[in-house]
Amino acid sequence: MRSAFYLLDVAPYGSEKAYGLLNASAVSIEMEVTLGLYADGVYLALAGQDGQALAAPTMSDTIYAYPEIRVLAHEPSLARRGLLCESLIERVELVDDADFLQRIRAAECLIIL
Amino acid sequence: MEIFFLTKPPRSDRTELCLRLLQSSNDAAIYLAGDGIYNLLEDSLKALPPERIIVCKEDMQARGVAAREGVAVPDDFYERLVEDLMREGNRVYTF
């Protein structure tokens, strides 16, 4: 297998899924790895995260630490949540609906936790 | 063939994503189990030939949902699903 698309549709810090999916992406960097933020998963794109108060790792650090992971944010999901006017992590690429679906199809497998 | 395995109810974000991938597919079949059964009550699967909709009988009975004419309700739902998942050339999406 040469490529994988990890889909996150749950908000970070409220459950382990974002942390788990980020780490799964990090250990897959030998392949072409895409992390797709969809629905509530787009909250992971927000800049200024700091997990210390929760004694939790700051997940945006992982996005910065692994430039090999391509991070896409589903633009309609961002718009629906009023996040387009918020500051987002620079490394996150905003894509429209059609492009997002096309990237899912382009990967050899789709993984959702 | 593209195989879709849906276990989420109609208003779920994942169901919405699944249906959009399904609608843009040329050769697809969808397996419904768990809360995915409730999608039988919607019009969202009307465009798919009924024989390409395969439903888990136990989940359907438990939820009091009836399948419309032509929808497949096999006794060996999971055996059939695994066969389709393993068949060479099939692409699988689970939601």
End-to-end distance of chain A: 19 Å
Strand order of the largest sheet of chain A: 4-3-2-1-5
Shape of chain B: globular
Largest sheet of chain B: 4 strands, parallel
- Tally of separate helices of chain B: 3
Beta fraction of the residues of chain B? 15-25%
Our count of helices of chain A gives: 4
Give me the side-by-side strand order of the main sheet of chain B.
3-2-1-4
- The assigned structural class of chain A equals alpha/beta
The name of the CATH topology of chain B is Hypothetical Protein Ychn, Chain: A
What is the average of the pLDDT values of chain A? Answer: 93
Classified in CATH, the superfamily of chain A is DsrEFH-like
Instruction: Give the C-level CATH assignment of chain B.
Output: Alpha Beta
Oligomeric form: heterodimer
Radius of gyration of chain A: 13 Å
- Beta-strand percentage of chain A? 15-25%
CATH class bucket of chain A: Alpha Beta
Listing every helix as H and every strand as E from the N terminus to the C terminus, the arrangement of chain B reads EHEEHHE
Task: Give the CA-based shape of chain A.
Answer: globular
Number of strands of chain B: 4
